Amino acid sequence: MKRPLRLVAVLALAAAAGAGVYYGWFMPAEEGAAAFQGYVEGNLVFMAPEEGGRIERMAVEAGDEVKEGQFLFALESSVQIAQRYEAEARLRQVEAQLANLKAAQQRPEQIAVLRAQEERAQAALEYSRSEVARQRTLFDRGYSAKARLDQAEAAFERDKAALAEVRRQIEAAQLAGRTAEIEAAEAAVRAAEASLAQAETRVSKRRVAAPADARVEDVYFRTGEVVNAGQPVLALLPPGNLRLRFYVPEPELATLALGQTVAVACDHCLEGLKARISFIAREAEFTPPVIFSEQERAKLVFRVEARPVGELNLPIGLPVSVSPVASETAARQSPWPKPP
């Protein structure tokens, strides 16, 4: 008879312990308000470089408060800076080539020489013209032979052609490059500008800044260490990413709704902390392999998340107690859509 009595005592103790856990986690903290146990959780923002390299400078430590745009860390960037200088030099080169094509083919000094040749050819042509007129007069009067007239006329045509040649040389010297060559040079300038912008972007991305006001939650690498592309160097926690996660038994789930305000309490915390429910799970976190009954449904718990109302500077992982605010209206919005 002693063994059955011991078994009954063990079962009684187990039942008392189970009841204690249930009452400690899910029973009302005060009359009319159930207290649910949970903890503080945060969506960390992991800051990582887009390209790998050696950390050259680390400007923050764990626990620091940073502002949006504040410098966090930088990677060694000598190669990227050299690539930017190369892109700048290439851009200057193609810009000079484009300017040369758009300008005259000959320099002003060379065109001045051609102008002098034009004046000389013009003077020779005037002399040849007067000589032809004089020889024709002499030939008409019978004082000169026909050969002299023919020679003068040939000299005139020669000087006339020489003047035309010099003038064409001046026109050619003043012409710019061909349209197709200019368009190709302009395209080369645009490509060089894009390469320079890309090189400058790569240099700027070697320095990582805070995307928003946040607290440095943890630092994973130090100055001098090498990180890969996309590997987190530190973690930030913006205030808006802080939330409370707690678990509600199935019988109490109907008392909560999305957007409902809940009171938050924790050890040595200020009074009056509140949060607003932002998520209610559609599936239970734990389902016992039994046929459900009125008693067994209490074993089902649902995950609920709430975002702080106002400033809630609590560390991640801190246990909290969450309870509905008594002043909330009795009208609840069901977390599940109504059937059609």
Can you tell me about this structure?
There is one protein chain. The longest helix is centred in the middle third of the chain and has 34 residues, at 108-141. The strands form four sheets. The protein has a six-stranded antiparallel beta barrel with strand order 3-12-15-14-13-16. Strands 4-11-9-6 form a four-stranded antiparallel β-sheet, with no helix packed on it. A four-stranded antiparallel β-sheet has the order 8-7-5-10, with no helix packed on it. Helix 2 runs antiparallel to helix 5 (179-204) and helix 3 (108-141) runs antiparallel to helix 4 (146-174). The protein starts with a helix and ends in a 16-residue tail after the last strand. The chain is built from six helices and 16 strands. Helix content is 42%, strand content 24%. The protein folds into three domains: 24-43 and 238-324, Beta Barrel (Elongation Factor Tu (Ef-tu), domain 3); 45-75 and 207-236, RNA polymerase II/Efflux pump adaptor protein, barrel-sandwich hybrid domain (OB fold (Dihydrolipoamide Acetyltransferase, E2P), Beta Barrel), CATH 2.40.50; 87-199, Helix hairpin bin (Helix Hairpins, Orthogonal Bundle), CATH 1.10.287.470. The protein is of the alpha+beta class and 340 residues long. The chain is rod-shaped and about 140 Å long. The relative contact order is 0.18.
